[in-house]
Specification:
The chain is of the alpha/beta class. About 40% of the residues lie in helices and about 25% in strands. A seven-stranded mixed sheet has the order 10-9-12-13-14-11-15, with helices on both faces. Strands 1-3-6-7-8-2 form a six-stranded mixed sheet. Strands 4-5 form a two-stranded antiparallel sheet. The longest helix has 18 residues. The protein is elongated, with a radius of gyration of 27 Å.
Length: about 425
């Protein structure tokens, strides 16, 4: 491997001019001088105020999986780290890795004549990272930005973008989809399942040609509501797995603000067509609900976005969210599984390896009112008991879970009792 040099070397600095070593102007001048020495032309600098970090995300991804596209030209300071220790968690093992470090490095995209630098600048006795974007000219920069958008769509097909509102703003991170959920693994009433997937398929088929053909605004919003554990998240995961377009989750918190609402919608607009999932939408802080509603009403804020809201407590939802066209078009209740769905779900889990057909039917009868999450817990309990005792006490396990279920009903909203007061258009 060719040895990589440093642009600014501490031992070469004259002690009498040492403060200059830390100054912004000295650092950027040294970087531009290095680029001219390497490539023989002057580089223009560009401010980045709108991309919300996409350029740096793709740089990091390219360094991992597209190394032929980007070159490391040099490090900046010789007294600062040049690599990063990272970890990769899988179900099988924990893997420790050495990754290229973006900070303190000068990277170059030869196909676009674009250089990227993230380097510390020491000012007022403190250290701050500064991002520098340099290109040969505007045409090179435009072509590079087009490349960034294409790469981002490719990259996020196997990832979910997670936005979390924090005290310091919107935290954005990518999570690799490790557990794929197919549509066959989604247990819903058949007509409801067909309607939801048909809506998804038409939205993402041929860039929304259905909407253009019939002069329908190219945006869609659905709300999924119902008790916890009945498959809302599973349904969303199956949607993410069955389309070739980006999916993002937005986690509402007490720190959600007008700024974070603008930030999220501004970011996802660049990813369209895409799916934006807003989990627990009922937790939207009251003081920003009007801003959120106005954003949904914007002429272009939802263009190309399939919006999915989820809630366990629809009675907490502002009726204005539903009762106006262009916000959420449909609301679907994800109900407790019927006897038939409970039977099919348990067979899909292969519960028949532990108990007889007769006992399976008994379990299905005894689990009326159970959610899929509770059925999954029952399956786990049966598997554990079988593993250790080679026999299963069905009556005891069902009785224990029924008792838990009754306790939960005292604390958790019951959709069948409350649904008439919500005022949804279904």
């Amino acid at each position: 491997m060719e040895k990589v040099s440093h642009i600014i070397k501490f031992h070469e600095i004259d002690p009498n001019t040492l403060p200059n070593y830390y100054e912004y102007g000295f650092v950027i001048n040294s970087i531009k001088k290095k680029l001219f020495q390497e490539f023989g032309f002057e580089f223009k600098m560009y401010a980045d105020e709108e991309t919300t970090n996409e350029i740096w995300e793709i740089l990091e991804e390219d360094l991992q999986s597209n190394k032929n596209e980007v070159n490391l030209i040099s490090y900046i300071f010789d007294g600062i780290e040049t690599s990063t220790i990272s970890s990769n968690h899988t179900q099988e093992k924990l893997e420790l890795l050495i990754k290229p470090r973006i900070t303190n490095s000068l990277y170059y995209y030869p196909n676009y004549n674009v250089a990227l630098v993230r380097t510390p600048i020491f000012q007022s006795h403190s250290e701050m990272n500064h991002d520098f974007i340099l290109a040969k000219d505007n045409n090179c920069m435009v072509e590079f930005l087009d490349y960034i958008l294409v790469r981002k769509r490719e990259y996020i097909r196997n990832h979910v973008t997670v936005f979390t509102d924090t005290e310091d703003g919107v935290d954005s991170k990518k999570e690799k989809i490790t557990t794929m959920v197919t549509r066959d693994e989604v247990f819903l009433e058949e007509n409801l399942k067909k309607e939801i997937y048909r809506s998804i398929d038409e939205f993402f088929s041929k860039s929304g040609s259905f909407f253009k053909t019939y002069n329908i605004p190219y945006k869609r919003g659905i709300l999924l509501y119902g008790k916890p554990g009945n498959g809302k998240t599973t349904l969303v995961k199956s949607i993410a797995n069955s389309i070739m377009d980006p999916v993002a989750y937005w986690q509402i918190t007490e720190f959600t603000s007008s700024y974070s609402i603008h930030e999220v919608f501004s970011t996802v607009a660049k990813m369209a067509p895409m799916v934006l999932v807003i989990e627990d939408i009922d937790s939207m802080p009251e003081d920003v609900r009007s801003v959120f509603l106005n954003t949904l009403d914007g002429a272009t804020s939802k263009e190309g976005i399939f919006l999915i809201g989820t809630t366990n407590y629809p009675e907490k939802i502002d009726p204005a969210l539903i009762n106006r066209a262009g916000r959420f078009d449909r609301a679907y209740e994800i109900k407790l599984p019927t006897e038939d769905l409970r039977y099919r779900y348990l067979l899909k889990k292969e519960i028949d390896q532990f108990i007889s057909s007769e006992n399976i039917e008994k379990v299905v009868r005894e689990t009326k009112g159970f959610s899929f999450a509770q059925l999954n817990e029952l399956y786990t309990s049966i598997a554990l008991q079988w593993h250790y005792d080679r026999k299963v006490n069905i009556d005891l396990l069902c009785s224990e879970l029924q008792s838990d279920n009754k306790n939960n009903k005292k604390r958790i909203w019951d959709s069948e009792q409350e649904s008439n007061n919500v005022g949804f258009r279904v």
